[in-house]
Amino acid sequence: CGVFGIYGDPQAALKSYWGTFSLQHRGQESAGLAVLHEDAITVNKGMGLVTEALKVEQESQRIGHAAIGHVRYSTTGESSLVNAQPLLMKTRFGLLALGQNGNLVNGESLRERLESQGAIFQGTTDSEVLAHLIARSAEPSFYDALKESLRLLEGGFAFTVLTPQALYGARDVHGIRPLALGQTKEGAYILASESCAFDVVGARYVRDIEPGELVRINDDGIETDRFVEKKSERALCAFEMIYFARPDSRMEGQSTHVVRRRLGQILAQEAPARADVVVGVPDSSIPAAMGYAQASGLPFDFGLVKNRYVARTFIAPSQALRESAVQMKLSAVRDVVFGKRVILVDDSLVRGTTSRHLVQLLRQAGATEVHMRIASPPYTDPCHYGIDTSRATELAARNMNIEEIRTMVGADSLAYLSLQGLKTGLGQQGWCMACFGAGYPVPLEEQPVLPLMQ
Ligand code: SF4
Ligand code: MG
Fold it and tell me: Are 211 and 441 in contact (CB under 8 A)?
C-alpha cells in the first residue's frame, strides 16, 4: 500500500490526489482521500486505480487544509470497498481518519481480543485494529491513546492518522515499511510512503521518519516523539529497494535506481555468462540490467517492451489472473533478440510465472540462448510485513533447487545474486531480508499482552 498526508495547505485535497496518484504502483485495488475542513472529515474512496476511484475535478474543488490519501493492495483482508482506506471512525475522542501501509503480525490476535471485549469490526483490515485500540484505550487524551495503541502493534507498518486537530505519522519500531517527511515551499508538511510523492506536488524531501517515531503536525508545526522508548535495530524492507519503490524515490538517503544498478553490477561479477546482449524486464529491472551490462561490457538493449496499461502482475489476486496478466503485459522485440544469446535480468523471481513466460517469448522471437539472471537472492520465505508473497507453497525457491527452477522456467542457465551481494549493493546495515532467508526481524509469534480496557 501507499500512504500520503498533508497538513496546513489550502489545496490539501488536490495535492493529496496527486501525491497518492504518484504512489499508484504501491497498490491498485482501491484508493481514497480523507479531507479535513473545519471540524469535519469526509472520505471519498472507491475500487480500482486512483483515476477510477476518485475524480480529479471533484478533488480540486474539495475545500480543506489537511488530508490523507491511500492506495491499497491486500496482504490481509479481502479486496472490497469496506477495506478501502482511509478508514473513518468516530471514537470517544472524536473523528479519526486512518491510512496504513504494511501488515501486523499480531493483527489477528489483537482483533480477537478486541472482539471478545465487544468491538465490532466493519472490515477485515489491520488498520481497523488501530482505530479500535484507540477507541478502547483507558488513556485520558487522544495522543496518549494513540501512543499506547501503537505500542501494541507488532509487524511492519506506516500509519497516517488525521483528526480535526492534527495529522500524525508513525512507523514501526524496525522501520520495515517506509515513511518520509516532506515540506512544500509554503511550509506545509507532508508524509508519504515514498519521496516521489513530494516531487509531484513541488515539495522537498526533508527526511525519513525514524523507526518507532511518532510525529504530530498541526498549526504549531511539527513535533516529534517516540511511541516506544527503546530503539530497535533498523530493518527497512530490502524489497522496496529491489523492486517495490519507484526508481525516482529515495529511501534512507539512497536512490532506488542507483541501488538497483549496483545490484546488477554485482550480479554480473558473481554470475557472468557468454552472451551477445543484456535485456531487462521492464520497468523495475531495467536499472539492474543496465548495471549488469556496464559491468560485463556487453551491450544493453530493450529486448522486451511493456504494455503499460496492465497492472503489476503480482497484484492480481489469483494465479490464473496473474498468468493472463503476464501474457498481456510484455512482448519481445524481435530485432533485438533474433539470433542472439540473451542475458535476461529480472529483479526478483518469486513464483516463476513471469520468468517462464519471458524465456518462452524470447525464444519465440529467435533468441538462441536465454540466460536468466536474478538481481536478488532466492526468495525462500514468505513476507509477513506487507508485501504480498504470503503463501510458502507458491515460492519457487522454497520448493525447488536452482537447477529445478531453471528447468521450470526453461532457461539455458539461471543464477541469483548472493545474499552477500545484496548486502554489498544495499551498502549499509539495517535491512530486512527475511524473504531471502536472512531471518525475520519481528518474531512471528510475538504477541504483547493487551492492557485492561474500559
Ligand atoms: Fe521486505 Fe522481504 Fe522483509 Fe517482507 S520479508 S519486509 S518483502 S525484505
Ligand atoms: Mg519485474
Answer: no
Q: Minimal CA–CA distance to 19: which of 99, 123, 95?
A: 99
Q: In the predicted model, is pLDDT for residue 308 greater than 90?
A: no
Catalytic residues: 1
Number of CB atoms found within 10 A of residue 220's CB = 8
How do the domains of the chain map onto residue ranges? 2-232, 257-436
For residue 428, how many other CB atoms are within 10 A of its CB? 11
- Residue 306 has what DSSP assignment? E
Backbone angles phi, psi at 393, to 5 degrees: -65, -25
CA atoms lying within 13 Å on the CB side of residue 108: 8
C-alpha cell at 292: 549488469
Encode pLDDT of 101-159 as tens digits: 999 999 999 999 999 999 999 888 888 999 999 999 999 999 999 999 999 999 999 99
Distance (Å) from CA 285 to ligand 2 centroid: 6
Distance CA 243, CA 267 (A): 15
Query: Dihedrals φ, ψ of 409, to 5°?
Result: -85, -15
| Residue recorded with cell 548495471 | 291
Q: Are 227 and 220 in contact (CB under 8 A)?
A: no
Query: Cβ contacts of residue 225 below 8 Å, gap of 6+?
Result: 147, 213, 214, 215, 216
Q: Residue 449: what pLDDT?
A: 46
> Which class is domain 257-436?
alpha beta
- What residues are designated binding site? 237, 284, 346-347, 383, 432, 435
- pLDDT, tens digit (0-9, with 9 covering 90-100), for 56-85: 999 999 999 999 999 998 766 666 788 899
Cα 346 to ligand 2 centre (Å): 6
Give, in degrees to the nearest 5, the angle at Cα 24 between 285 and 239: 40
Residues facing 34 on adjacent strands: 43, 68
* Phi, psi (rounded to 5 degrees) for 325: -65, -40
Q: Whose CA is nearest to atom 2 of ligand 1?
A: 435
Whose CA is closest to atom 6 on ligand 1? 237
Q: Where are the beta strands (DSSP E) in 20-164?
A: 30-37, 40-47, 66-72, 87-91, 94-104, 155-162
Is residue 215 within 8 Å of 224, Cβ to Cβ? yes
ipTM of the complex: 0.89
CATH code for residues 2-232? 3.60.20.10
CA distance 349 to 426: 18
Cell of 361: 517469448
